[in-house]
Every structure is written in structure tokens, then in C-alpha cells.
Amino acid sequence: MKIGILISGRGSNMLAISKAVRDGTIPDSEIAVVISDRPKAEGLRKASELGIEAVSVPRKGRSRAGHDADIMAELGKRRVELVCLAGYMRLLSKGFVLEYKNRILNIHPSLLPSFKGLEAQKQAIDYGVKISGCTVHFVDEDLDHGAIILQKAVEVHDSDTPESLAARIIAHEHETYVKAVALVVGGRYRIEGRRVVFGDGGISAAPGG
Ligand code: GRF
Fold first, then answer.
1. What is the pTM of this model?
2. Three-state SS across the chain?
């Protein structure tokens, strides 16, 4: 499966997925391209160092639809079948979501539907929850909303700051995102409304499958 990864910053989830593709934890796949909307994203350099094609598609001066069209052109050129958002900080247009329906994944650092949007770890601490975590989900037109593939719970400590909680969650993000991509690539799942159901009885809904 040809995977495209969209980033805006550090790119640690991108690295985790790329390494898992390389060592076969995510089977039968290749990272066709890493795209950033921010030319200076650290993740672009990290992708290049791994020998992955790293492309900057700046959002500056482009409408959302125009920018997404630029990105879709880059994905299309490389016949990307599955798109992973990994710290990509721009909402996708309706056109993009429809073009890649059920073929775009995202990771969010909370147990959705709690704490959507920015600063999810700070939101969790401010609310006083004792457990937060991370969620990998399919992307639909609404923010942090699509059908959930995997979640992982992480304890919130009384002494946590948003930074310390983020540091504890990110390690689980890497593992959870890799598992979720492997599951989706494997194709043994079906989507029933909001539910992603796994198991041998699953009808393959794999991208390209
Ligand atoms: C992660 O916490 C991810 O859940 C959120 O943005 C952060 C990106 O980190 N969407 P990285 O760029 O993958 O290191």
C-alpha cells in the first residue's frame, strides 16, 4: 500500500510509521511521500534523512480548497492510497475528505470525543480528568470526529503539566498509530456507521482493496 504522510512540525509520529513500514511491522507498504504545509517543519528534514521523498506545499496565500488541491496533486502523482495525518495542523476541505473517503487517518492526543482541537493535553488537565490518552480515527469533515480505529488510555498524574502529560502520551501515540495503520493496511475490518469492527468476519474495506 502506498502511504502519504502529512505533517506540520516535529514529525515523531511520521518517523514511527516510517520505521514500522521499513521493518515490516506495517506490512506490504511504502511511504510514497511526506508532505508539510510548513516549509520549515523539522519532520521534513527527518524524512529526507530516512531517504523518503519530502515535499513542502506551503499554505501561505492559498485558499483551503486550493491548498488541498495542491496536496492532492502531489499524492495523486505518487498514486497514494492511504493518507496519514501526523501532527498536520490544518483542517481538510470537503473535497479532500470525499476524494479519500475512509482512506485518511488522524491521531489526536486525547480519548475522543473528549478534548477535540488544540492543546488537548492542557484541556484534559484543566478539566481534571484522571485518564486521558490518544485516539486514531478515520477523518471526516468535522474536526477530530471520524470513526475510531484504536484508542489507548494514559493516566493523568496530579503533578502533570501539559508538557509532561504530552510526553507520556506521545510514546503511546507512536505505538497506537503504527498498530492502527497495520490494521487498516491489513484490511480485515468494516465500518458500520461510527464503528470500526475488526475480526475474521470483516469485509475488506482496505484502501485500494
Ligand atoms: C501529536 O501529539 C499528535 O497527536 C497531534 O500533534 C502532535 C504531533 O506530534 N495531532 P509529531 O509531529 O508527530 O511529533
1. 0.94
2. CEEEEEECCCCHHHHHHHHHHHCCCCCCCEEEEEEECCCCCHHHHHHHHCCCCEEECCCCCCCHHHHHHHHHHHHHHCCCCEEEECCCCCCCCHHHHHHCCCCEEEEECCCCCCCCCCCHHHHHHHHCCCEEEEEEEECCCCCCCCCEEEEEEEECCCCCCHHHHHHHHHHHHHHHHHHHHHHHHHCCEEEECCEEEECCCCCCCCCCC
Cell numbers 488541498 correspond to 68
Residue identifier of the C-alpha nearest atom 14 of ligand 1: 12
173 lines ligand 1 (CB under 6 A): yes
- Strand-pairing partners, residue 140, are none
Q: Which atom of ligand 1 is nearest to the CA of 173?
A: 4
* Digit-coded pLDDT (tens) for 127-173: 999 999 999 999 999 999 999 999 999 999 999 999 999 999 999 99
